Write a sequence for this structure.
């Protein structure tokens, strides 16, 4: 597919962008708008596969909370990402969507979604804009490394070698490798002088050694409106019981702390309050009124779902639940689960680690090769779900493009 804008002259500068995810496409747009000749190389047959998958969950584009609180979600990477995000804020991202004809809305949690709750209309409109700007997208073109200053690509027609005024890498992390980003870039980048923090699963589930009865009964069931606590932090929300363990929004929010504890000590204990709106006395009151009932009925009448009830039973591993309402209330408000390991990166929402900030100049170029820029999830940052991932990918893609434009 080749589109060359009529207004372009042979003197315009050129960029090769590798990776057609949100970071690469965002970089391409800015450069093409500035009159650059832009070619995107993508190893998959189609662009932005992970972005489309994110659309299955509604496509949480960004978050509407105040910018300072928003920036705090990036933890230690805040200082590095802040200039890029202040330059392309969550409000800018919403305005950009509207500019593509995609209306957005703020959900009850403050998260921002496209009204259609999917990614394909937005991606279609975006690709059409890029095509109208003359951006060339070469699919099935797998970047394999450097040959001198030039980039090498494996394509169905054989190996190609290309170079441009700027090379922007937006190759993603290593989660969901079948969608294209598989972390296969690490070796070539290390040899090219970049330091790389190990890629680890982020926003991923954790393994729990459930009993086989529980695993069969509860896998796939949500635990809703609970409070999940670990390491002094409590998150209210939802988790999903999986056959391998536990996953979902509240777990992801505590994920980096849990992951670090497991790396340090080999396991971590998660506390769950299954009835966070009632204190022990109020909950015990509800359990008392229904005292003549079976325990299952008492739990149901106290507002607990069958999955929550199973979780309490799993916590006591087959022992009888206490008949005393105060005791039972205490159990409901402090279910403890031992998490034994982080689930595999294959199914994680995102990746921690990547090219370190020390390897980069402030304009997102590599210190060892200032013509080479890096953006998106292949950089060393992580954030919880809530729209923070896509916002940083868009913002760093644009920041890398600005870096390239500023170079003489
Ligand atoms: C199930 C799921 C749901 C998600 N939901 C959300 C959400 O709602 N909100 C949110 O903020 N984030 C969400 N995310 C995360 C978000 O999708 C990613 O953070 C984002 O796509 C990363 O963008 P990127 O451009 O850095 O990399 P990617 O989107 O991974 O794109 C990188 C591209 O580079 C290509 N590539 C890799 N290596 C090569 C190579 N050697 N040569 C050529 N091309 C190459 C890949 O094929 C890929 O197309 C979700 C992720 C998953 C898995």
């Amino acid at each position: 597919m080749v589109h060359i804008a009529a207004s372009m002259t042979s003197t315009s500068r050129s960029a090769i962008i590798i990776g057609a995810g949100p970071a690469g496409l965002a970089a391409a747009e800015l450069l093409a708008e500035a009159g650059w000749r832009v070619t995107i190389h993508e190893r998959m047959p189609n662009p932005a596969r992970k972005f489309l998958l994110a659309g299955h969950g509604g496509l949480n584009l960004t978050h509407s909370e105040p910018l300072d609180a928003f920036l705090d979600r990036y933890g230690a990477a805040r200082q590095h990402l802040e200039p890029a995000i202040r330059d392309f804020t969550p409000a800018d991202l919403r305005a950009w969507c509207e500019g593509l004809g995609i209306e957005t809305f703020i959900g009850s949690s403050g998260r921002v979604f496209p009204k259609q709750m999917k990614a394909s209309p937005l991606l279609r409109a975006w690709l059409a804009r890029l095509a109208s700007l003359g951006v060339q997208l070469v699919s099935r073109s797998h970047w394999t490394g450097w040959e001198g200053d030039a980039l090498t690509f494996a394509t169905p027609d054989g190996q190609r070698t290309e170079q441009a005024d700027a090379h922007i890498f937006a190759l993603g992390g290593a989660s969901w490798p079948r969608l294209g980003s598989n972390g296969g870039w690490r070796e070539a980048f290390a040899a090219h002088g970049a330091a790389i923090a190990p890629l680890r699963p982020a926003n991923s589930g954790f393994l729990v050694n459930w009993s086989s009865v529980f695993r069969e009964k509860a896998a796939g069931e949500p635990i809703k409106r609970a409070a999940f606590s670990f390491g002094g932090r409590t998150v209210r929300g939802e988790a999903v019981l999986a056959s391998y363990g536990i996953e979902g929004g509240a777990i992801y929010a505590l994920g980096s702390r849990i992951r670090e504890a497991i790396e340090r000590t080999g396991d971590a204990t998660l506390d769950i309050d299954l009835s966070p709106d009632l204190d022990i006395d109020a909950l015990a009151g509800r359990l008392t009124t229904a005292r003549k009932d079976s325990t299952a009925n008492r739990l149901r009448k106290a507002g607990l779902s069958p999955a929550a009830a199973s979780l309490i039973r799993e916590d006591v591993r087959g022992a009888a639940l206490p008949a005393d309402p105060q005791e039972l209330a205490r159990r409901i408000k402090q279910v403890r689960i031992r998490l034994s390991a982080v689930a595999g990166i294959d199914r994680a929402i995102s990746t921690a680690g990547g090219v370190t900030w020390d390897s980069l100049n402030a304009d997102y170029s590599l210190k060892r090769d200032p013509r080479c820029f890096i953006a998106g999830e292949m950089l060393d940052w992580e954030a919880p779900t809530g729209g923070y991932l896509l916002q940083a990918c868009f913002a760093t893609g644009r920041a890398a493009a600005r870096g390239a434009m500023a170079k003489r």
Summary: The chain is about 35% helix and 25% strand. The longest helix spans residues 388-406.
